[in-house]
Amino acid sequence: MNKSDTIKKRIVIRVLALVCLIVLLIWIYWGNNSIEVSQLRIEDKLIPESLNGFTIVHISDLHNKEFGKQQENLLKKIKEAKPDLIAITGDIIDSRSTDIKKALDLIEGAIKVAPIYFVTGNHEAWAEEYKDLKKHLEQTGVIILDDNMVNILEGNTAIQLIGLADPDFTVKSDLLNEVKAMVNTKLQNMVSTEASYRILLSHRPELIDVYEKNSINLVLSGHAHGGQFRIPFIGGLIAPDQGFFPKYTEGLYRVGETKLIVSRGLGNSIIPFRINNRPELVVITLTNIKEK
């Protein structure tokens, strides 16, 4: 091979490497800005027949992310789902660089679609700006369900909707399992034995054993960011409070009689991008099944 051929070969290799890099960057950009809508049907004989087909849009971990002007791309997908209720499970702001406006653009648009029920995440607990955000949420008509419960009525039947404030508001250390003990006590004081079906909004999926212990039927959570980098056939690489190769990162899980839905969330925090892990909007349809 002469010198000219060697130079040509090097040029071809560099061009191919550049093309591959550009394709990779486009794929990563698309994978961080293209919202995936996941449809989940929850079937249970305990769901009241009058709430058959009841639709919940589950939103989590916005982290100041913006999807079009005034969140128009995200709001479009929410409207298309035609929800009866919108559940937000925390971290709509990011404590490292809080931007309340991006969160409120979502809230002010979504509240026109369906009632919003909100619980906090760790970033609301960490952010000084949460006091201002909370005031705006309440003024907009959002129901803040931190450590509280409501009954969702349909005719003569109801489901109990329970919310937990993020543990970081009150517990700064978990050396002796203080978080689990505190959450367990809160749920014992809120869970109604009269309700036929109980839905819990809680930012933290890793506390599923406590939720199951308290006879929660369905839990909606976030926090794990889908494991940040999703490895084919393995799953997520890392998640807050679960470490490497976390167990609960996306989709539907079952522990005993409790079903857990974990949203991959919409934005990023400490790690500024995702790989193989698109932002997610979860659409849940409740379905009554007859007891056999």
TrEMBL record:
Q: Where are the transmembrane segments?
A: 12-30
* Pfam families noted in UniProt: Metallophos
Read off the InterPro entries from this record. Calcineurin-like_PHP, Metallo-depent_PP-like, Metallophosphoesterase_sf
Q: Name one GO cellular component term.
A: membrane
Print the keywords alphabetically.
Hydrolase, Membrane, Metal-binding, Transmembrane, Transmembrane helix
Residue ranges of domain Calcineurin-like phosphoesterase in the record: 55-226
What is the name of the protein in this document?
Calcineurin-like phosphoesterase domain-containing protein
